[in-house]
Design goal:
Number of helices of chain B: 8
Shape of chain B: globular
CATH class of the domain at 111-241 in chain B: Alpha Beta
Low-confidence stretches of chain A: none
Strand order of the largest sheet of chain B: 6-5-7-8-9
Largest sheet of chain B: 5 strands, parallel
Largest interface: A-B, 61 and 62 residues
Structural class of chain A: alpha+beta
Mean pLDDT of chain A: 95
Oligomer: heterodimer
Radius of gyration of chain A: 22 Å
Structural class of chain B: alpha/beta
Number of strands of chain B: 9
Number of helices of chain A: 16
CATH topology of the domain at 111-241 in chain B: Rossmann fold
Shape of chain A: globular
CATH architecture of the domain at 111-241 in chain B: 3-Layer(aba) Sandwich
Number of strands of chain A: 16
Helix content of chain A: 40-55%
Largest sheet of chain A: 5 strands, mixed
Strand content of chain B: 5-15%
Distance between the termini of chain A: 33 Å
């Protein structure tokens, strides 16, 4: 039997296909090489046995498939050996459940915490911090290593970067996170009262997307259907989040090439978009807007009119601010050809979001796995081909224009009393999946319930989990001085990975 | 160049008048809570996701724990309601135990410290498990809207250049030693600012084995509540500390 789901669907555990690890590996390979997507891969204890769970997506059919494979003993043949984009997932599995993916090419912890259970002793008894671990090193008389972080120069989250350099040229960059690990995934089943707040702060600049994903999971597990108005309001919150962050990124990219007018304008306009979210719910980050079963705040006609007025003003301002970039030869000279990732590499790594679309991959969960209001029509998926900083900037700007139009189209449907559908008890022994297109790319939530209908396992996959390796590869062959610009062009989340 | 100048004229000057002007806050903004005369319905404290509401007696809300989610407005039957006052920063942890009425807002540093920091305060920001919301709304103080530089305050790239730290996040186990090293690297005399519920109390991560909190031997001069605090709440707190706001 095979449980073929649509986005935000649920299935009984008995409907989920069980297979051997060997077959699972084959199925993942067939899917990924055929243009499918490995949405998530993780381990969970089920009926007293550790299982691998793969979540595969078929973009053409909008189908999502859950597969389970029991793991016997202390190891299994690594899936990464044939499907490279599984690499960080398998490091996570090894760390959480102390089980060895045999043949994994670079087996290191992800978050540097104690394993959830005693197993093969994969990483030994000693647990030094993230920065104190073996890193890939180049050898040679004129080779030098540059170590950066965890505390960075700006107001930014912590992470550790090791560059292997020859002169100014970077041959290899290894990125190690884990400093932000707060234990979210383990706390979600144990602490129902805080669940929504864990989602809102899993990656604090992606509040709307993670909270929406969780709400849809809860609704799928309790057969609750939010009103179309609530769905429209959620879509508006998601697009405002995209607009605010993309605007901030355009300003930051301008700042990193020393073009201050756009940096200054966009710094302010980003706030204008955040304040539009605050207009809806009082919080610039959308805290408190979403709840299982709907939204906590209605969009009144007065708020809709004000939002519409502000959108017009912000659109004119951002068009002027960003427009300067495309006319300035010194900006373009720094953007073009910097930090190139090829379409092949992007596909192999399973990159998502603007970073993938900049390489020519036409993928977007809003169109590929639509749910909620996006079922009535998603913004057009925009993609470029050059895979450089320029493409990552331009994709954002094109997306912003789409988002602005989308919000205007959606606003009438979001107005008025959105009502509320109270989520009842969760269905026992079930699983639910939700995929949302956050502003950095698609994120995936998976939940399992036990016999009593309680959440027994919750898996969050943030887009940054897939994209950090893209940044590392973008740096190869670059000057180390291009790191800030390349980094900003990806602008990935640390806490979204560390959870 | 001419295009940039024309655009500059079109974008206008947008720096807010502060302190002194009337800050514009969203209508649904949740700031300083007020308490009605009624008692809390039984079981209210247990419904607060972060345990910010005291068990019995008159209403007592710990603003150091509060994430301003506003759910207590409903389950308290109106006994708690959030106002729009954004001024929330205080000098002592105890001042955040809010019993209604006015908060004992942050005091200015002593005269000697103000002589050193009053006209030029350089801060190093350490995110120690922050979700990037506190960080983002600290960062925004550097935009032309708030223009932090006009008050002589600047975020710097090295603890050696800093007069103090602004800490965000619940201080994860994995950031404990980096925070300590950064604090030690700041020359004396130095100040520490805890921004956001996580830095003050662990916030929604309180009680997690993975978080530690700011070590007890690192003295905190300013507590800025919120999840995240509004940029104006942060700016107001810093300016109070420097004696630039007294009312």
């Amino acid at each position: 039997m095979s449980a073929m789901l649509k986005n935000s669907g649920a299935a009984a555990l008995s409907e989920i296909e069980r297979l051997s690890v060997e077959s699972l590996r084959g199925r993942i390979g067939t899917s990924v090489w055929g243009g499918g997507v490995l949405l998530s891969l993780f381990a969970l204890p089920l009926e007293g046995v550790l299982h691998l769970c793969a979540v595969l997506g078929d973009r053409k059919k909008s189908d999502i498939e859950l597969l389970l494979a029991p793991v016997e003993g202390t190891g299994y043949p690594a899936i990464t050996a044939s499907v490279h984009q599984a690499h960080l997932f398998e490091r996570e599995i090894a760390e959480q459940y102390d089980i060895r993916p045999e043949g994994h090419p670079w087996l290191k912890p992800v978050r540097f915490h104690e394993p959830y259970r005693k197993g093969a002793g994969v990483f030994g008894a000693e647990r030094p911090g993230p920065a104190v671990w073996d890193y890939f090193r180049m050898k040679g008389e004129e080779i030098h290593e540059v170590a950066v972080g965890p505390v960075h120069a700006g107001i930014i989250e912590p992470g550790h970067f090791r560059f292997q350099c020859h002169g100014e040229n970077v041959y290899h960059l290894e990125i190690q996170l884990g400093f932000q690990h707060r234990g979210i995934e383990r706390a979600i089943p144990a602490n129902p009262a805080r669940r929504l707040f864990y989602m809102e702060t899993a990656a604090g600049d992606t509040t709307a997307a993670h909270a929406t994903a969780y709400c849809r999971i809860a609704e799928a597990l309790s057969d609750c259907r939010p009103s179309p108005r609530a769905e429209a309001a959620r879509a508006i919150a998601l697009e405002l989040e995209r607009l605010a962050n993309h605007t901030g990124d355009m300003g930051a990219l301008a700042g990193d090439v020393g073009y201050l007018p756009t940096m200054s304008f966009c710094g302010r306009i980003r706030g204008d978009f955040l304040n539009m979210t605050a207009l809806l719910c009082g919080s610039r980050f959308g805290r408190g807007l979403l709840e299982e079963g709907g939204t906590r705040f209605d969009i009144t006609p007065a708020i809709a009119a004000e939002l519409s007025r502000r959108l017009d003003a912000a659109q004119a301002d951002v068009a002027g601010a960003v427009g300067l970039l495309w006319k300035n030869p010194s900006v373009l000279a720094r953007f073009e050809g910097t930090g190139v990732v090829s379409a092949e590499t992007a596909a192999e790594l399973g990159l998502v979001g603007p970073a993938a679309r900049a390489c020519g991959l036409k993928i977007d969960a809003r169109a590929d796995f639509p749910s909620g209001h996006y079922l009535t029509g998603a913004p057009e998926t925009v993609a470029l081909e050059t895979g450089d900083v320029y493409a990552r900037a331009m994709v954002r700007w094109l997306e912003m224009q789409q988002s602005l139009d989308f919000i205007r189209r959606t606003l009438p449907a979001a107005q008025g009393d959105s009502g509320f559908c109270r989520c009842g008890a969760f269905k026992p022994e079930s699983a639910a999946v939700c995929v949302e297109e956050g502003w950095r790319g698609e994120l995936c939530h998976v939940a399992f319930t036990d016999k009593g209908g309680k959440l027994s396992h919750y898996k969050i996959t943030d887009p940054s989990f897939k994209n950090w390796t893209g940044l590392a590869l973008a740096l190869r062959g670059q000057q180390i001085s291009d790191f800030p610009l390349c980094n900003k062009s990806f602008n990935l989340s640390y806490c979204g990975v560390d959870l | 160049m001419i295009k940039a100048l024309i655009e500059r004229l079109r974008q206008k000057e947008r720096t807010i008048e502060f302190p002194g002007g009337t800050p514009v806050l969203p209508e649904r903004f949740r700031g300083l809570p007020a308490f009605g005369a009624g008692r809390l319905p039984a079981g209210s404290p247990a419904q607060c996701p972060v345990g910010a509401i005291s068990e019995d007696g008159p209403v007592l809300l710990d603003l150091g724990k509060c994430i301003f989610c506003g759910r207590c407005e409903k389950f308290s039957g109106g006994a708690i309601s959030f106002g729009r006052d954004y001024r929330l920063a205080v000098s002592d942890r105890r001042s955040l135990l809010h019993r209604g009425g006015e908060l004992a807002l942050a005091r200015a540093l002593d005269e000697k410290s103000r002589a050193i920091f009053g006209r030029s305060l350089k801060l190093r920001q350490v995110s120690a498990g922050g979700c990037n919301a506190c960080e983002a709304d600290v960062n925004v103080l550097g935009t032309p809207v708030f223009d932090l530089g006009r008050f002589g305050v600047q975020f710097v790239a090295s603890p050696r250049h800093a007069d103090g730290l602004l800490i965000t996040g619940p201080v994860t186990k994995n950031m404990e030693s980096a925070l300590r090293a950064t604090y030690d690297a700041v020359p004396e005399p130095k100040i520490v600012i805890a921004a956001g519920a996580c830095a003050i109390s662990g916030g929604i991560y309180s009680g997690h084995a993975e978080t530690r909190g700011i070590p007890a031997d690192i003295p905190v001069s300013l507590y800025i509540p919120g999840c995240p605090p509004h940029p104006l709440t942060i700016l107001d707190g810093i300016l109070r500390l420097l004696g630039k706001i007294n009312r």
